[in-house]
Amino acid sequence: SQIARSEKEIRFYAVDPWNRVEFYQNHFQKHLSHVESRGGSPRAAFDRNVQESGLGHFIHPVQMNSVDFARTLPNGSVDFAFLDGDHTFVGLMADLRAWWPKMQSH
Q1: 81 with 104: CB under 8 angstroms?
Q2: pLDDT tens-place string over residues 75-101
């Protein structure tokens, strides 16, 4: 992939609690058969997909809440963030407040 060929130090943190079984069952019912075929849990499916992508050395799974993980990063240290949070207004605002200071200004 172009990411691998860039020769840049790139680190993707994939942050998810991976423990909300009822959320996955209610919101991703149509994907459960895929998850079952990829290891039986959302985390196992994620790990298998990463392994098969050949980009595992770039992707660092972090099993925790995104707001808690943001607190571990220095302000201004993040180039790019893709936030796919809990899909509630309160959750979105918490993510934005936590991650906005982490973003580098260019």
Answers
A1: no
A2: 999 988 888 877 789 989 999 999 999
